C-alpha cells in the first residue's frame, strides 16, 4: 500500500479573520471567498493577499456557496439567515433572508444553472429559493429529519442529494424522492459528486468515518469503503481533473488527499488546529484550507504519478515533450550503465516505436523480456509487433502481459486500453472499437470516461486519416468525452493521460484545442452566440500562454465577429421586448471584452425591464465609467437605484443627470432637460397631493407602525420619512400626467385610513390618555386593550393609519376641532379604506344571527358608520372575524347583510348603496327613529352627514332645538315637506316639527291612489265642462308659481291649500282616545284624534280660528323635470354643497314650455289628484295672526267634497307657522 506523504508546511498563509473560518470557495481569477464565525465574509485576492471585508450577518457565518457563473455568492449563518453578494464586486444583493429562523445554516448549494439556491438547517428542513426574486419557490420545504448536514446538486441538476442519518436523493423540480438509502452506520456528514455525475461520494460521522462511493444509476455502493479517517469527515472536494479528492476532519487536525483511481491516501496536510474546510485551486495545483486556526493555508499538491506500468523514468519528460532523440539518448545511457536494466530496454522500445523504428523496438522488447519477463516488457513487445503488422504475435504478447498484472483491476484495464490502441494503430479498427465497448460495458465498478476518451480520440484519428466527411462530428464527440469531467475547469489533459502520451505520442491537448476552435466557429455560424462564447472561454481557460499565442490571430477574429453579431442581435431583441435574450446576447459581447458604454447601457435597459435592479445598477455605473460626460449612465443609474429602493442614491444620480443635461454641448441633448422635474418641483407636487388627500381625512390619526397619535404635521412628516415618499421623489418618468397620476396613487395608498365603529363602554381611552405615548406600550386594560387590538388588526392588514373616535378628537379644549369632526365624520367614514366594526357584545362562540341582537345596531352614531363606508368588516369580542367570514368586504356577504337588514329594518340594498343628501328624507328619519344616544343632542348631530348638512354643534342646547335645527335645514334646503309628516308631540322649536325623532317611527299613511285608467276616465269627464277646464288651468298656474316651503327664524312659511274650519265638536265613541269631529268648507267631515284641543262641549261653537291645510307638493304638477328642482340629484362627490334656499322672490315656476293641449291635460290630471284623500294638518290661529300646528295622535286624512268645485281649492296661501 502506498504510504501517504506528510506535509506540514504550507506555501503561504493569509490572516484577517478574527474567529474560526468555516467555509470557502475559489474563483478562476485567483480569488477566494471565505466566511467566519466573526460574522464577516471576505473576498481575497490570492496574488496580493488583500481581502475585501463584507459585513451584514448578525450571526457567525457557517456556510458559503458560489454559483457556477461566479456572479453570486451566498453565505449562511448561525441565526438561520442567508445573505447574497455579487460575485465580482462583493456588493450586497439582498438584505438578510430569514431562511431558517432558529436553526443555523448547515449547507448551501446553487443549482448548476444558478437559478435556484438550496439551503438546509440542522433541524432537517431544506428550502429552495429563486435567485432572481430571492423568494422561496412554491411548494413545501423538503423535510429530511434532524441532523441535515449537507445538500448538493448533481452536475446536471437532475438530482439533489441530502445527507442526514440517511442519504436522500430528490428530483429538485418536483421534490419527489427518487432514492433513499443508509449510507453510513450513523450520520452522513458530507457529499461530493464526480464531475460526470456517475458517482456520488459520501463521508461519514465518527461512528463510521469512511468515504463510500455510490453508482448513481443504481444507487448501489461501488467497491469497498475508503478507510483512513478516525473521526467524522466534515467536507469533501474533488479536483478539477477529477483525479484527486480532499477530505477534511476537524477532530483529526488534517486534510487527506486521496487518489480516485485506487482510493488510496497519497498525502496528508497537517494543521496546527482543526481545519473546517478545503478547496482546490482552479488549476488543481494547490489546496487551500483553514478553520480553527483563523488562517488560510495554501499547500502545493504533490506530483503523484499514477502509473503502475511505466513508473518514473528518466526520459519521461522528453517523451511528453516529443523530444524522442533526447529520450533515446537518456535511455541508452541508462542501458550502458546497467546492461541488465530490463525496464530501460522496454522504455527505449516505446521510443523506437514512436519513431516507427519497428525492428529496433522489437529487439529492445525481446531483450527486456530475456533479462526479466515483466508487464512492461510484454507491452512494449505487443506494441512493436503491431507496428510490424504481426497481429497474432502481438495479441499473444498482450495476453502474456496480463499474467504480470497481479490481477489488479486498474492495471488490467489500462493494459487492455493500450492493447486496443496498438491494434487500432495496426489497422485493426473494428477489433479495437469492439474491445473498448466491451471494456466500458463489462467494468461497471470503474470509471467509463477513459474508454470514452480513447474511443473518441481514435475515431478522430480514423476520420482524419481517411479524410472523412465526419471529422467534425468525431471532433465534437471527442470534446464531449473530455468535457464530461468538468467543461469549465482549467486542466492539462496530458497530466491525466500521460502514459498514453509517453507510449503513443498522442497530442490530446492540441486536438482538444483544435476541435474547440472549429466548434466555436460552427456555433457562431449557427448563431448560437452564447454557447460559442462559453466554449471559447473554456478553451482559453484551458490554454497556457504559448498555446494562446498560437491561436491569437484566430482569437482576435473570432472575438470581433462574435461581438458584432451579439450586439446587433441584442439590439433586435431589445427592440422586440425579448429582454432575457437581449441580456444574454449583450452579456456574451461583454464577456469578449469588446463592449462599449452603449452595450452596457442597453443591457442595463433590458435588466430594468426585468426588474433586475441591482444588476442594472452595475451596468449603469459601468456606462458612467466608460462615458462620464454623458447623462445616459446617470439616468440609468437613477432608474435602477429607484427600483432597488435606494432612494438617497437615486436622488444623487438624478441630480448629476440634470447637471449633465444642462452642461451638454449639444442643443438637442440640453433640450431633454425640459422633460424632467427637479426634486424640489416634485416635492411641491407631492405636498399639494397630500393636502388634497387629507382634506377628507380625520385631523388626528394613529400611526399603526409607531403606535403614536399624529396631527397633520406629524402625518406629513411620517410620509416624508417613508420609502413611498422617496420613491415618488425619484419616480423616473418624463410624462407629467403620468407623474401626477403616480403621485395621486401613491399618496392615496399611503394615507389609506381605517376607522373604527364601536359602542362606547366604560373606561374608554381618551385623547389625553395616549397623547405623546406609544399605544402598544400602555397597560392593555379596558379601552386601551380595545385600541391596541384595533391598531394591530389595522397594521397587520397593511394599513399605516387608524382612527378611533374616543381618542382621536380633542373634545375638551378645542371646540372648533370637535365641531369640524362631527360635521366631517360621515365624509371620513365614506372615504375610509376600511371601517372595522367591533361588536363587544358578540362572543367568539356566536352563531349566525347574533348580529341582529347586538346593541351596536341601536346606537345613533353607528347609523352613519354603517351606511357611509364602502368597505366594512365585523369583528367579535375577541377580535376574530364575525362568522369567520374572511371576505374583504362584509357588505358583499349575503348572510351578514341579511342579518343587518333584519336588525335595522332597512333593505340590504339601501344599506350598501346609501347616498347622503335630501332624497328620501322622511325614510331616512324613519331609519334613525329607533336609535339612541348618550347625549340627547347627538341624536341630531349624528344625522348631519346622513343629509349632507353642516351645522354648528352646540352641546347644552335642548334636544328639541338640535333636532329642530336639523329638520329646519332639511326643509330649507330641499323644500321637502315629507319631514312634516309625523305623529306625536310637537317641538318647542316649531309646532310643525316633532319633539322627538321617535315620531318618525310610524311610516307615512299609505293612501289609496287612482289607477291610470281611472285618472283618464275622470279627466275625460271633466273636459266636458269648459268652466271646470278654465278653473283647472287657473289653479294649475297659481300652484306652479307657488314657492316651496322655507324656514326663517324658527318660523315655517308653508305654501298650502287652506280650508276654513266651521265647526269642531267632541265625538264620543267606543275608543278611549279624544276625538273631534271637524267640519271645513269644501271638505268632507273628518275625525281628528288629539289631546291638544281644549274643547269640552259637543255643541259649543268654535271661537278660535282653525284651518285644515293641504301642504303643497310640487310633484303633483306632473312635471318631467321636477327632480331637477330638488337637490336630491347631487352626485356622490358634491353632496356637501347646498343648493340655494327657495324664497318668495324666486318662485319655483317651471321653466318648461308647454303647449295648450299638454298644459290642459296636466291641469285636469292635477284636479283629479287633488280630489283624492290627502294628509292634512290642523292649524290654530294665534293672537298675532300666526298659526300653530295642532299635533294629532293619528294621521289626519281629508278629502274635498266635489273635485269639480274648483273654487273651493283656490284658497292657496303661504301660512306662517310658529
TrEMBL record:
Residues 1130-1154 are annotated as: Disordered. WD repeats lie at residues 14-54, 54-95, 105-133. It comes from Suillus plorans. Residues 1142-1151 have a biased composition (Low complexity). PANTHER family: HET DOMAIN-CONTAINING PROTEIN. Keywords: Repeat, WD repeat. This is Heterokaryon incompatibility domain-containing protein. Residues 755-844 form the Heterokaryon incompatibility domain. The keyword Repeat applies. The keyword Membrane does not apply. Gene3D superfamilies: Tetratricopeptide repeat domain, YVTN repeat-like/Quinoprotein amine dehydrogenase.
